[in-house]
Write a structure and sequence with these properties.
This protein has three helices and no strands. The chain has helices at about 1-20, 20-30, 30-55. It is elongated, with a radius of gyration of 17 Å. It starts with a helix and ends with a helix.
Length: about 60
């Protein structure tokens, strides 16, 4: 969830500093990174579940 806050703050700050609209800022600051970050999050959850199954909950 924190990644959403990070993306939002970065996008708004970029738009303000560079002087572009939010759509242009989104295209530069979020669009190139959203899918790879989502893939990494899914992979992390899969790894955590595999470790939990292998080790067992204590």
């Amino acid at each position: 969830m924190f990644i959403v806050v990070t993306y939002t703050c970065g996008c708004v700050q970029y738009a303000a500093v560079v002087g572009v609209d939010l759509a242009a800022a989104f295209a530069v600051t979020i669009a190139p990174f959203a899918i790879p970050d989502l893939v990494k999050a899914v992979a992390a959850v899969a790894c955590a579940r595999a470790v939990t199954r292998a080790v067992g909950r204590r």
